[in-house]
Amino acid sequence: MRPILLTSKRQLEPNDVRQCLRIAFGGVLGFIICKLAGWNYGAFFVVQPILLLGMVPTLNSHVMRQFVGNMLVVSFSVLIIQGMFGDKPVPMTIMVMAMFALLFREMSRGPNFLFGAMSIVNMSMQLHFASYPTADIGDIVASNIVSVLTTLFIAMLMHVLFADVEPRQPRQMPSKPLTNQRHEVILATTVATLSFVVFQVFNLQSGLSAQVASILVLFPLNWRGAGPAGWNRALGTLVGCNVGLVVQLVLMDHFDVLPFVAAGLWICLMLFARIHLLEGGSGAGFAALTTMAILFGQYLSPRQDLFYSDLYRFFSLSIAVTLSLTAVYLMHLLLNRFAATRFQI
Asked: N or C: fewer beta carbons within 10 Å in the chain?
């Protein structure tokens, strides 16, 4: 019988518990800061701490350089792409595709995986926001810059408060043949560009969660990784939406009381962080974490609860993940027909 979750561990190690605490408290701290300050684009301030603390277990100069580099590249790209080609669909799509190719290339190579992954997620989110008729590109870019600086402060604080109890072994980056790298870059770039085009053509302005989910599905970079993990990722996004509804039901008319909402968010993040660490990779737990971050960071306010947003995302996420995985599989079959792009197991 197929297990519901593809977990690699049976119980958490001491370092894993500390990382769970960093993710939960870091995400909640970003949420509280953006709500108290009244900043726009709250998703940036909640998603980025979770991405940084969840994707890399340690914080060092190389990680920080990649994180700051992602801010610079994405800010420049969004200003140029949206500012110059926002009203020209074809050139804009070509520019977006070129940026995706460069970033997925960094992910496929390995050493700068964090830079590529963070840049892709942030660029997708900012281009999504920039497509709104009333969007202010300068405000979007400024919000992202502030969120990056805030996230670095949060990450450093979390690593001080919840430091690892024992040294971690450095991750060994597997070597990949050139055919695999070509396969991964072309596959991921094509599917990510298709996702961008679909959300622009159909003007799905309320589909931020679905768009981010369609990007996160590509993080394994190949069908061998995306296929088995796809079920877990879809499960995580859908469970995240339902847990958001449960929190809303518990809070009822008190969704505008910040301490209550923050406490509910912390419990959810801690639960999903535990699942994320047990899985040992980007699966159901990580998808649920990002779903909760977007729901609470972007769509919850004193004047708006989560019911409509959550129900809409429940269906849009399932459709986006299913279509993305279908596109990944079809591209996998196509690329394997050519020796230069055949994926070698």
From this structure: N
Rounded distance, CA 202 to CA 200, Å? 6
What's the structural domain count of the chain?
1
3-state helix, strand, coil in the chain (%, to 5): 75, 0, 25
- Full domain range(s) for residue 336: 14-341
pLDDT at 300: 63
Asked if 66 contacts 51 with a C-beta cutoff of 8 angstroms, the reply is no
Single pTM value for the model: 0.84
**Structural domain includes residue 5:** no
Would you state the structure tokens that stand for residue 241, as one six-digit string? 């939406």
Count of positions (residues) in the chain: 345
- Burial label, 318 (beta-carbon count in 10 A; 0-12, 13-18, 19+): middle
Q: Any residues with CB less than 8 A from the CB of 235 and at least 6 apart, and which?
A: 4, 5, 284, 287
Within a domain: residue 202?
Answer: yes
